[in-house]
Amino acid sequence: MARILAAMSGGVDSAVAAARAVEAGHDVVGVHLALSAKPGTLRTGSRGCCTVEDAHDARRAADLLGIPFYVWDFAERFTEDVIEDFVAEYAAGRTPNPCMRCNERIKFEALLEKALGLGFDAVCTGHYARLAVDADGRVELRRAVDADKDQSYVLASLTGDQLRHSMFPVGDTPKSEIRAEAQRRGLTVAEKPDSHDICFIPDGDTRRFLDSRIGPTGGALVDDETGEVLGTHGGVHGFTVGQRKGLGLRTPAADGRARYVLSVEPVSRTVRVGAAERLEVREIITDAPVWPGGRPEGGPAECVVQIRAHGGTAPAVVDEQGDALRLRLAEGVRGVAPGQVAVLYRPDAAAGDLVLGAARINSTR
Asked: Site feature Interaction with tRNA: at which residues (predicted)?
């Protein structure tokens, strides 16, 4: 029997994860993380999370399971490490992933560190991912059984030590069965909508949120091929590579085709736009990687790379260059932006669900 701290968001996945940990015979304590300095009283459908309502739902689930329950205030840490980082990244012309940042800095750094300090053996969450142990006793991170709900991408920046102190009890089960199980257990969150979008922007208007934090920083919209100034904008933080809508262009391209954001240049405040084919990337350079699945040995190695949490994958060859990585893609990939994270999976079909490593994208070509 292990002492387990179950992170309970107030949703169905974390409630069932906690229930399974209890059923497995562990000594479980539930905790809800208060991440908002000004929590609302109600959710709006599937938008928003970490609200007062979510805390109440988590408490009701813990009461039904018969486990102790606490609310821990992580709002200040969340503001510094997730929200302020999110704003700074957009201001610098990069495209961050706040969910990955939250997992890395809040749930599996701050929370896990506190849990271990209090004598817990592991933190249990409702993430859709699986853990396995290889022949050498190393913990491996793998994709969930439910491919549509798989969250291995947003967990890929965790270290091997963090994974050794983690539990993902729902990763071996399709989401539909998790809801049915919650219903059988009498959990009132069985039919609660999943949260989506960014939790600290419950209305979904990212540009307005960034405008309120960064302010107007106008610049030019430029045709990348001709250099022609096509219009102006209110700030580079309102754009990301691959974006097509909301460009505010008054004149169509000469060939009548849609234009896309090709690059964002914060120093000159320039947003370059062009045809879709100019988005194609064949090479990616990253920052220092994290290797939860063990770094490839013996020089360049084949892998499968995923750029977005719910995006497709592409075959690639990865080569370490000092503290960075160079990824050469077997086929062109569109919409790759600095600040996104490249997650590498093992390429062979038998173990293609195994996460090898992850690194933030610095540049592309």
From this structure: 127, 340
Residue tagged active-site, from 49, 50, 102, 303: 102
CA dist 308 and 335 (Å) reads 10
| Domain shared by 37 and 180, yes or no | yes
Residue ranges of the chain whose pLDDT lies below 50: 41-43
Q: What's the pTM value of the predicted model, to 2 decimals?
A: 0.92
Range of the domain at 259: 216-278
Query: Which CATH number do you get for residue 76?
Result: 3.40.50.620
Token digits for 167? 């539990």
Compute the C-alpha angle 62/109/292, nearest 5°. 110
Non-local (6+) Cβ contacts of 232 within 8 A are 218, 219, 220, 221
Total count of domains within the chain: 3
Residue 131 annotated as binding? Answer: no
- d(CA 93, CA 105) in angstroms, rounded, equals 22
Per the annotation, does 339 bind a ligand?
A: no
199 tagged catalytic: yes
Helices (H) and strands (E) in the chain, counts: 10, 17
Q: Based on the domain organization, do 37 and 118 belong to the same domain?
A: yes
| Residue-wise pLDDT tens digits, 312-343 | 899 999 999 888 999 999 999 998 999 999 99
| Same domain, residue pair 227 and 290 | no
Is 293 annotated as ligand-binding?
A: no
